[in-house]
Hints:
The protein has helices at residues 23-36, 41-44, 49-59, 61-69, 86-90, 106-111, 137-142, 144-155, 161-164, 189-203, 216-223, and strands at 13-17, 74-78, 94-95, 113-114, 117-125, 172-180, 208-213, 230-236, 244-245, 251-252, 264-269. By secondary structure, the chain is an alpha+beta fold.
Amino acid sequence: MSPPNPIIPPPRYEIRPLLPQHIPFARAIITHSNIFHSPVWTKIYPSNQTPRAYTFYLASENLMTLNIASGHSYGLFDTQYIYKRPESAATEGKLHWDFNDMTATAEDLLEQMDFPLVSIAMAWDAAEPGRDGSEWGPAVAAMPRLGTLFTEIEKNDKRDVAIWKPKEMGQVIYRGGTSTRADYEGQGLAKVLAHWCLWRWREQGFRGMQAGVAHRAVVRIFTNPPEGMRGEVVAVLDTKGYEEVGEDGERVRPFEAVGDVPCVRVWVDLK
């Protein structure tokens, strides 16, 4: 029998499986985090952030619904959260974004995220039937360089594909979304949730977890997993050196503005 999960959330927080009623909240968190706070996407898409946030939120519905339906996605909840609006309390949380309000700032949109979910870990079984990557299509259309990032990192992964793309379920977990609300950052909550999930998946018999990461702190979280596990970077996108030919025929470096922020694929051996 495996030892009990030793990762304990801080007081006032608890980890729960994400359920269908949490889909709007998870979508809002991942959208707000990526559009307004990501060290990569804020550099690549620095303008028109509010309309892009609305577009990305709407585009993420099918993807996030599938991730939550997988049963492997978890969230960290603030058990002492104080609702800002009575109507939010009545439904245990509500998203109040007005998708026609293009004047809303990042701060406005954060204030309108009136729910106790504060950090998310989206995941699914790598061999889950019916998942061929097409579910990412709308999100990639909203942020095309997201697709470039996925494609180029996968090209640079030289491992035997059988390691990370199993034919049977229950072997490998894919991670596709590590985000914490801006008003809860700096408390180590993403690490607590990520490491708790690693233990949970090991308890369930998974041998490995794979994640695409574009944030230095998240790379540290996965390359320094709990004792008994081993994490490593297995593929890298050279953000400074990657080139392609633009529509005008000129060579461009679309990720150059990102600087030295790591854009990588991480693998964690769970056993």
